[in-house]
Every structure is written in C-alpha cells, then in structure tokens.
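Subject line: Sequence and fold of a protein, written as structure tokens
Area: Proteins and the way their chains fold up in space.
Start of record: The labelled sequence and token lines come straight after this line.
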Amino acid sequence: MHIILGLIAAVIIFAVLVAVHEGGHFFAAKAVGVQVNEFSIGMGPLIYKREKNGTEYSLRALPIGGYVALEGEDEDSDNEHAFNNRPAWAKAVVLVAGVFMNFVLAVLILAVLITYFGTSVTPDIAKVEKGSPAYEAGIRAGSTITAVDGRSTPEGEDVRKAISKAAGDGDSTVITFIDAGGNKKEETVGFSEDENGNKIIGVQFKAGHNPLIGLKYGLIDSVKMEKEMLVVLGQMVTGQGSAGDVVGPVGIVDVVGKTAQTGFINMLYLLALLSLNLGLVNILPFPALDGGRLLFVIIRAVTGNRITDEMENRVNYAGIMVLFTLMILITVKDVYTFILK
C-alpha cells in the first residue's frame, strides 16, 4: 500500500521540486534578458502546452524532471537575447538561480515548521520545578529573564547559552528577571543536574511562534543540513561511505511512501531535505549539471575563445551519458533492494 501512496506523493514532490528549481532558472533568465523558448514540467510525451509572450509552457507525461529551454543554451544563436550572447555574470545568475530557489524552498518550509511548533523558546518562564535552584531562589512561573550574569538575554536561546556558559564557569549564576507582578529582581541561582548530568536551574520556558525567529532558525538549520550532506558526499568520494546510502527514483518512492504514512508534517520535512539535496547535487562542478555549466562560464570568461561552444557541448553530452548510466545502475540496485529483496 505504501508503494502506491509513495508513487502519488513522489509525483507531487517531484513536481514541486522541479517547478521551484526550473522556476528559478526561468525567472532569472527573464530578469537578465535571456529568451526562454520552453518551460516544461515533466519529461517525455507532451500532455498540455500553452504559449505566452514567446515562451511555450508545457506539461509532459513522465514526472521525473523538467527543464527550461533557453535560446542559445546548447547551440550558437545570433539572437541578441540568446543565452550564449549574454555576459558571463548574466549566465552565472541564470545557472545558480535554480539551486538558490531549492535552498530558499527548504528554508521557508523549515521556517514554517519551526514557527508552527515553536521558535525555540522565549525568555518567559512557563514552569519552575519545586525544589529546584530557581525555585529556592524565589523565581516563579510568569517571570521573564532579562539578563544572566549581567548579559542581556532578549531571546530564549540567549538565556540557554548564558546559563550553559555560567554552569561551565562556576557553581552559580546571577539571574535578572521581571516577576509576574512587573517587579525587576536579581537573584543568585545555583545549579542541579538532570538525568544526563547537565547542569540546570530547573525552569521551563514558553515556546514562541515568531515567524522572523522561525525564518532565522530555518536558515540556520538549512545551512547545517547542507554541511552534513557535504560531509556524507565527501565520505562517498573518498571511499569512506557506502554505495547503499545512495538511492534513485525507486528508493525515493519507497522513502516517500513510508514517510507519507507518518503524516503531512514529516512529508514537509522530507520535501525540505530533498530540496536541499537536489540543490547540492546540481551545483556540483560536473558536466551537464548547473555547477558544471557554471564552471565553464568561469573558465571561458578567463580564457576567452580558447574553449568553443562545440567543445563545451561535447563535454556536457559526455556528462549526460555518465549521469544516465549512473541513474540506470542506481535504479537497478533500488529495484533489487526495495522490491525484489
């Protein structure tokens, strides 16, 4: 059952990812004056098309990708609005835009989730454990911590960091707070230890739902996830990782199907993860990928006419063949792993 659910959900996810990625290329191309001949969601046989302002918008049968066809992208063109006739900076903007939009999508999804569940914590105290150091110091629920050891703490994360630092420096800390009655107070608070041996003062903070803070931590989490993906990629390149960690469309359908059964929230998180993954893969300096094309733009800007369009196209074609071969091998592995095994 989860395979059918996975197929449906995967089609939706792929469509969103492709629309966002190719939409980035599309709007960037329009912005820098490159003629867009076609904007397609899906590959293969044409299902629907509509032409507007010189661009053909199409929907194709196979939901495994999509593309933006730019005038002069893979061939010479005398059109002044052709990709090959635009300056290097304009080409770079168009090539990077897809990856950038994948990153933006992930940041926005995570920001929404973080805001919905609570943007970290606020400095407002929701609960004080009886008998805890904070309770013994007279701190009660409804108070707001404004400073720790004289350092201002406008956000809950500031309070946590300050208390953690104080715990590492000594046996107590000075907490400045405003109580439920609006009175400003200052108390010296000791520490106790939780079940993991961490030093605490015994308070629980209220969760905040500030969209701006959610956006901040959405960005932080996205950068952190990208770094972790780079580490895994580096391990695979150096032989420290396992080929079994790489999955293709079949493996993604399986993962999506299982995730879809756990709820919409987890599906959104998976969408953010896949969007970051798609962006990272596309920016790799490999022929035919956005990163490979960007590398050629940089090289040709430095070397001038030493590299021709024909030479670049040959290298990109070879890259496409390698990518197709890898995709076939990964798909065969996935069929064995997720279906036959």
Observations:
- The longest strand covers residues 36-52.
